[in-house]
Amino acid sequence: MVDNWDYEAFWNEARTQFRGTITSQEYDTWFTNMTYHGSQEGIIELGVPSAFYRDQVAQRFQSALEQTLFELSARRLKLAYVIRNVAQPEPDAAVPAPRPAATPAAAAPWIVEPPRRHSQLNPDYTFERLIEGESNSFALNAAIAIAKNPGRAYNPCLVYGGVGLGKTHLLQAIGNSVHAGLPDLKVVYVTVETFTNEFIQSIKEKTGHRFKNRYRSADVLLIDDIQFLQGKVETQQELFHTFNALYDANKQMVFSSDRPVSELMNLPDRLINRFERGLNVDLQPPTYETRIAIVTRKIEERGLSLEHGIVELICRNIRSNVRDLEKALTKLAAYTELMQRTITPPIAQRELQEFFAKPEHLSITIDGIQRAVADYFSLTPADLKGKKRTKAIAFPRQVAMYVARSLTNSSTTEVGLEFGGRDHTTVMHACQRITERIKTDATLEPTLHKIINSLRQKSVA
């Protein structure tokens, strides 16, 4: 009799088999938070955390899952869904409690939530809360390896990438994991700005020994935003000595930067060499699929109710970084709460207009422009930022400044700083020269179009 069947066993087998037909990201997003709830004649009931979750699973996977069940059981079994609160246990003690989402970090038994909060770390910045995708997989797995064996795996490590791509989250996730799994180790997290301010304060108060002891006694030192070391000679020197002391003692160091170290200006070669001594990994803007997974996770966490069309609208138009995706959801959540209205596609389009306007501006950076222009003219980004004024370099530099002003919201002062600390009047002059030359040089406008089109194609990818 069908009633005697072990429906849960059928479901578990079907889910295991189905896992091999989808990506690990899809499985982590939609299946690890789904539990077996019960059964009726010919029906398997699954516990899901929300109506949104139910609708997404039904739309994306139900037909294929039911076909898998048929192949296993030779019976046409149906799937039904019971919405439950994942934060609360099921009332029936016989039903297993919901299992936490299995991310690459959660699969490792040594990574657990911190039992106590580290004073310098955000407890929300954990590996469990990171969505793995093509854009961050290498960096994420390197960070997990570092947290598991600090001082032994990839020391030092430099994580670089644009704004809002998760550099700080990754550094602090390493700190939180070590703090939880290896509580005897001293973890120090600091930004370069704080490091600099504490160093200056130690000079004023003549407490240099305390400053050195704080950083050189660390087992794991995490320093954010090393691009702000540029031009700070004494701070650079102090960090150089701290680096040597920790490296010689096999202590772990992890740094972050908004660009590769080779493209940072006004840093001594000996410090650059040390940053590049270990593993350098980059973070790229998330792909469309990863953005869908991120937004879906954030919606669940916030308790929002958004139809899938709105999720797709957000992810098609916001391609720059995770931070902008979060800002968009925050605005929609505030609208729902304050206006007491359900978000519809027209409302989302209207309220998120500032995010959707000229989307290439959100993902095209000055760093990317410098790379594109340098590649086109067979130069390096360092050439464009350097002091040489030969025609072979000066003209491409003017082109890069012109494109930067055209495709980003950066001011002339900000553009000048990115080109080796040049004055804003230099940028204004460059833009004026290119504008005038377009009128007389028939080859210049096609050249600009090629560079700009290549940048926009990369921003859409």
Task: Give a verbal description of the structure.
- It is a single chain.
- This protein has 461 residues and is α/β, with parallel strands linked by helices.
- The protein has 21 helices and eight strands.
- The protein has helices at 7-19, 24-30, 51-73, 137-148, 167-181, 192-205, 208-216, 233-248, 269-275, 288-302, 308-317, 322-339, 345-351, 353-356, 360-363, 366-376, 381-385, 391-407, 412-418, 424-440, 444-460; strands spanning 35-40, 43-48, 78-83, 157-161, 187-191, 220-224, 252-257, 279-283.
- The chain has a five-stranded parallel β-sheet, sandwiched between helices. Strands 1-2-3 form a three-stranded mixed β-sheet, covered by helices on one side.
- The longest helix has 23 residues, at 51-73.
- It is globular.
- Mean pLDDT is 83; it is low at 86-115 and 358-362.
Order of helices and strands: HHEEHEHEHEHHEHEHEHHHHHHHHHHHH
Note the beta-strand portion: 5-15%
Number of helices: 21
Number of strands: 8
Radius of gyration computed on alpha carbons:
26 Å
Major pleated sheet: 5 strands, parallel
Shape: globular
Summary keywords:
10% strand; three-stranded mixed β-sheet; globular; alpha/beta; 461 residues
Explain briefly what this protein structure is.
This protein is α/β, with parallel strands linked by helices and 461 residues long.
What layout of secondary structure does this protein have?
Layout: H1 7-19, H2 24-30, E1 35-40, E2 43-48, H3 51-73, E3 78-83, H4 137-148, E4 157-161, H5 167-181, E5 187-191, H6 192-205, H7 208-216, E6 220-224, H8 233-248, E7 252-257, H9 269-275, E8 279-283, H10 288-302, H11 308-317, H12 322-339, H13 345-351, H14 353-356, H15 360-363, H16 366-376, H17 381-385, H18 391-407, H19 412-418, H20 424-440, H21 444-460
Helix pairs in contact: 1-3, 4-5, 6-7, 10-11, 10-12, 16-18, 18-20, 19-20
